[in-house]
Amino acid sequence: MSLRIRLRVTKSLLRRTERFCFGLGIVCMGLCAAILVQLWFFQAYENWAFDQGLGAEPASLAGLGAPTAPLSAAATSIAPPADRGKVETLGFQSYLDSSVVGRIEIPRIGLKAIILEGVAQRTLALAVGHITGTALPGRTGNVGLAGHRDTFFRSLHGVRSGDTIVLTTIEGSYEYRIKSCEVVGPGETRVLEDSAEPMLTLVTCYPFHYIGPAPSRFIVHAARVAG
Would you say domain 61-224 falls under CATH 2.40.260.10? Predict the structure, then answer.
């Protein structure tokens, strides 16, 4: 085969590869856009329904896309209460996914998201998840919330001590003040241990800009403000 023919074949292959990569990129962008649109609509609807529910008595907030039956997911038990199901808290997986728990807001960093019960992947794709087995907002104990670092908890890298976190439920609104942050391994479940005082623990993957499964967890500790 002459050099001219080889060059022609090579150029043809390069053109086909370029078109394939371009088409694949368009498909990937379309999928990402569809996921973001679904997330935006889910949050917009649930925020509207939640605001409506705050003025109603009682209110059902199992809105569009919010699962009301248990969702199956592979999980490993890490000392959960026997009657609450299996939970892998720092690994973000759970057998239990349910309805709306409330809403989290951190005004200084512009974070505002609906909280759903459970931490299965389907739940965390749409909202912040309440870690089953931890205290509920407004109750004495340690409230555990988990979120993905590339969606709702992306802005957590900008938090600092003294920032205000507001958890709102149908029962009321509760203000927390950030005390500290730390980076731990995925097996460090001590951060979710119960407390005699009303506390809040936020969990997300770390580093924030890591590509692929992150090796660590970023933890935010906050205490409820008396009032």
Answer: yes
